[in-house]
Amino acid sequence: MCRLLGLNAGREPVSALFWLVDAPDSLEVQSNRNVDGSGIGFFDSAGAPVLDKQPEAAFAGQEFRREAKRARSVTFVAHVRYATAGARSMRNTHPFTMDGRIMAHNGGFGELGELDAQLGRYRDLVQGDTDSERYFALITQQIDIHGGDVAAGITAAARWIAARLPVSSLNAIVATAGELWALRYPGQHALHIIERPAGASSPVRPSRNAGPASPGAASGPAGTGDAATGLHARSTTSSVHAPGLHTVPSVVVASEELDGEQGWRMLADGELVHVRADLTVESAVVLPEAPAHLVPLPPGNPNIDT
pLDDT of 4-49, one tens digit each? Predict the structure, then answer.
């Protein structure tokens, strides 16, 4: 299974370099377990989606790190892939874009022919072979059916799949410029959220998923955040510095707690969150029922949540 990251800074363009590369459990670190592709999606100054992705592990080449350093946006969606459906190719690499939105998915489901029949003309939006891109096409269809309501579209799409198809996970992040939605369903895969106000300087704790720091990461005192110079996050094996994060509030959603900062919480089973442009967060359990055909994760899966 894959790993997800969503970042919303509302109306202020920011860099996501810390979460993508420098954090103790950044997506680049997680790519050592998720080697089948990596991608970053964000929005340009006009609000148009931009994708930079490749069918290789984030740690294996320079493209992921280069784009992580270069990109500035109000909203990001990033993904590292552990392929379960579809070949290792560019067209099957997340994130995906449709109708001005960006989406990435963590999980899987089967019997895609039945979904193809439901999609009708929306099947033409799908360029690759994955269940994930079909899921996005269904979300797009349902958003249109619900008059442009993104939350209602995500909920309806996930409910349709859960009622009819074998499902392991429908965890997803969907974004527009300045807004972000994240669904955790069912509870088989983790999805966490942290809300960081400007000037946040909460103490940090060791990350349970610690990884090596990126070269050149500055060290800071263990267990402290420095509001004058940025956020210091210390793992059990490394200490890193995220300059400038103190100046802009942000909300981050991720499959794993990327750093040692306090304040992360796990989304509930079936919970959908909506992060608005003013960074207010709306949350509700929209899918209280279990999938009709839950597929347990196989033993040895590198991303089983504990």
Answer: 889 898 888 876 565 455 444 444 545 544 445 678 888 988 999 9
Taking residue 45's Cβ as centre, other Cβ atoms within 10 Å add up to 10
- Please identify which residue in the block is written with the tokens 């103190």: 246
pLDDT tens, position by position, 63-115: 655 655 566 788 989 877 554 554 455 678 869 999 999 999 988 898 999 99
| Cβ contacts of 88 within 8 Å, gap of 6 or more | 36, 37, 55
CA proximity to 99, closest of 40, 135, 148, 39: 148
pLDDT, tens only, 170-206: 999 999 999 999 999 998 888 999 998 765 543 333 3
What is the dihedral sign for C-alpha 151, 76, 251, 290?
Answer: positive
Rounded distance, CA 67 to CA 175, Å? 19
The three-state secondary structure class of 118 is helix
pLDDT, tens digit (0-9, with 9 covering 90-100), for 263-276: 889 999 999 999 99
CA dist 57 → 33, 83, 85 (Å): 9, 11, 17
d(C-alpha 231, C-alpha 261), whole Å: 9
At a CB cut-off of 8 Å and minimum separation 6, what does 270 contact?
184, 185, 186, 187, 285, 286, 287, 288, 289
According to DSSP H, which parts of the chain are helical?
17, 27-30, 63-70, 112-119, 131-145, 150-164
* Number of alpha carbons in the 13 Å side-chain half-sphere of residue 50: 16
The residue-averaged pLDDT of 137-162 equals 98
- Report if pTM > 0.70: yes
Cβ pair 300, 184 in contact under 8 A: no
Neighbours of 87 (CB within 10 A): 12
User: Residue 284: what are its φ and ψ, rounded to 5°?
Assistant: -160, 145
Q: DSSP string of 149-164? A: -HHHHHHHHHHHHHHH
